[in-house]
Description:
Layout: H1 2-10, E1 19-26, E2 29-36, H2 66-76, E3 80-86, E4 90-98
Antiparallel strand pairs: 1-2, 2-4, 3-4
Amino acid sequence: MNLMSNASDSLEGRDNKIIKLSLTETLGKVRIGVTDNGIGIKEEDKPNILEAFFTTKPVGKGTGLGLSITSKLVKENDGRLFFESVYGKGTCFYIELLISKSMPTGEFIESA
């Protein structure tokens, strides 16, 4: 959810707003991508972007915790969070997780 919120925030002031979600499976892993055509991330901000309390947002908008919490949750599930970004063109964040062989897939059980 945080990745979607950040993508939406990055589109402020843009005319042609695009957020694209992707899901791919390869080599026993699933990769979720959230891509936007927003402002992108400056080169000098990239090394710190996943750190707690680091934010590129204006004062009063955001806490700087979203990406660090997202990264921590992904790591706790043996995954990784990474990104590609070109300042002025957009960003894509990826969550990559191992596919568990023991979990059922494609079946939903409704509760009463």
